[in-house]
Q: What sequence folds into this?
């Protein structure tokens, strides 16, 4: 009995010790840099997702029945990152990490806050503002909103480069396993906020008003600014390596510029200060693109950028096309939820494959999986229910002749009845749509009728949803390759150019849609998208082959030297 009591007491003490140890470990983790980065990143991503979604809705509401302001904002945002991506990255490289993070965070949140205030004033006094200066004050307000939103996006790009492309490398101590884990966790946070944040702010705007929605975003940014500032400052203090930063490339580029200037000293001296500054900016952009091109992972980065030229994602183009094919808004929302889950599965697959086969092979497997799933989308173009009609691309055939062909028993287009005209674009005017997170929901669509077959649209979404597993695994692979292979002094400028490339290829996909905007064109866009994706993965295969040859040659040299 006494032995049993002693054993029982020992068991209880052991449990208490284990609980204290676990609670102590949990407390250490909660105070550690990884958790602080996760919370800061979650707040930043949540605010970004809410803002971009709400701003699209605000711009549509302000401009009535037109998508013009939304299109202008998208063009300005993409163009600014394309032009200034290298400059932003160079600024990140040249300044201390804490100053870069704090300045980017401050500029981003203050820009969103001021923009929210301007929008609240415009929504509250819109009729009065339209009467001033014959309506030109309204144009001024629209311009201010777009400029402030663009500044916030540029600051967000700088913050993303600083934290996700630099800080977490130092925090993990350049440990590849820990780096892969942090990358995957940050991507999971991004996937979750991409779904939940727009739903929350959308509910606020629906149940209350646009003014209340602006106020909600304003309050969120003020709170987020404070918390993120404190957390990032804490991380900077507890990770001493963040305070040291090597800049050898900066000195080299400065010498190159000085050498270039000494070749024509009289011409440089005669230039006004503004022109000299402008020339310096051009030289910085040139040096950034040169630095990007000479990276060993150049082909892998280009391959990732090519994946942005696609209509095979859950953006307004694909979902708008789905509506013309009779897919309901509730079903689209369900499909978006499933796609988010498959995206999370992609992050899990990445961590498993990397541990088993290494980073290079993980990228190859992910590429093959991505391409294999996209073949379902290609199949959807030629299956029953597809509205593909190549004859409407011919300039020799006018609308009357195509109408006569349809009436004479030619192939019936399987478009949604509400959009029976072959000239109906994928995106109608504002009077018949509601915007959700990357989704267009149509009103006044008659029920009880639909396409003759749902086989085509089923294959399309099977491919799009399943492809996200390989897509996000491949994205994480290339992200880590860039992190591991770019010199510390060039991380900012190279990742800035990478952001520019991503936006450039994204612009191409919108140009594709503008060139072929009808539902009957969508099959052609699918095929072109798969061609771009295939080209991107081919670039990665070329990089992987070259990298493996390099590693094999190094191994053989080491064996020879050991002999």
A:
């Amino acid at each position: 009995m006494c032995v049993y009591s002693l054993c029982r007491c020992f068991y209880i003490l052991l449990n208490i010790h284990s609980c204290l140890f676990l609670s102590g470990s949990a407390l250490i983790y909660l105070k550690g840099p990884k958790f602080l980065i996760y919370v800061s990143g979650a707040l930043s991503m949540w605010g970004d997702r809410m803002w971009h979604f709400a701003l699209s809705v605000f711009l549509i509401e302000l401009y009535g029945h037109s998508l013009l302001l939304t299109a202008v904002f998208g063009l300005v945002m993409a163009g600014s990152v394309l032009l200034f991506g290298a400059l932003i990255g160079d600024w990140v490289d040249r300044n201390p990490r804490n100053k870069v993070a704090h300045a980017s965070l401050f500029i981003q949140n203050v820009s969103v806050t001021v923009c929210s205030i301007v929008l609240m004033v415009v929504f509250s006094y819109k009729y009065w503002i339209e009467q001033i200066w014959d309506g030109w004050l309204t144009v001024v307000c629209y311009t201010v909103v777009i400029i402030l939103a663009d500044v916030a996006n540029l600051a967000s790009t700088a913050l993303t480069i600083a934290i996700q492309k630099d800080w977490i490398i130092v925090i993990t101590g350049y440990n590849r396993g820990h780096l892969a884990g942090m990358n995957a966790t940050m991507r999971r946070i991004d996937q979750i906020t991409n779904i939940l944040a727009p739903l929350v702010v959308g509910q606020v705007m629906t149940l209350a008003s646009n003014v209340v929605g602006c106020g909600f975003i304003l309050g969120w940014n003020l709170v987020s600014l404070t918390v993120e500032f404190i957390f990032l400052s804490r991380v900077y203090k507890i990770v001493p390596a963040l305070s040291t930063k090597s800049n050898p490339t900066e000195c080299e580029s400065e010498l190159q510029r000085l050498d270039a200037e000494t070749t024509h000293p009289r011409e440089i001296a005669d230039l006004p200060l503004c022109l000299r500054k402008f020339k310096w900016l051009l030289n910085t952009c040139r040096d950034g693109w040169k630095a990007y091109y000479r990276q060993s992972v150049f082909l892998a980065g280009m391959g990732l950028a090519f994946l942005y030229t696609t209509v095979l994602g859950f953006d307004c183009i694909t979902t708008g096309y789905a509506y013309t094919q009779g897919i309901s808004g509730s079903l689209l929302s369900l499909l978006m939820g499933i796609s988010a889950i498959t995206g999370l599965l992609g992050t899990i697959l990445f961590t498993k494959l990397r541990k088993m086969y290494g980073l290079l092979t993980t990228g190859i497997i992910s590429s093959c999986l991505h391409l294999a799933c996209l073949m379902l989308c290609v199949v959807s173009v030629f299956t029953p229910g597809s509205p593909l009609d190549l004859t409407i691309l011919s300039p020799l055939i006018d609308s009357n002749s195509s109408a006569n062909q349809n009436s004479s028993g030619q192939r019936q287009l399987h478009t949604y009845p509400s959009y029976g005209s072959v000239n109906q674009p994928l995106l109608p005017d504002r009077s018949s749509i509601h915007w959700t997170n990357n989704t267009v929901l149509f009103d006044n669509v008659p029920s009880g009728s639909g396409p003759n077959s749902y086989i085509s649209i089923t294959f399309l979404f099977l491919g799009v949803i399943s492809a996200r597993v390989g897509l996000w695994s491949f994205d994480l692979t290339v992200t880590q390759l860039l992190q591991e292979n770019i010199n510390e002094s060039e991380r900012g400028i190279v990742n800035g150019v990478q952001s520019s490339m991503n936006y450039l290829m994204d612009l191409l996909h919108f140009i594709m849609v503008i060139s072929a905007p009808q539902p009957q064109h969508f099959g052609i866009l699918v095929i072109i998208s798969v061609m771009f994706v295939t080209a991107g993965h081919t670039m990665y295969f070329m990089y992987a082959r070259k990298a493996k040859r390099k590693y094999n040659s190094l191994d053989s040299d080491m064996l020879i030297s050991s002999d």
Notes: The mean pLDDT is 78. The longest strand covers residues 433-436. Residues 522-562 form the longest helix (41 residues).
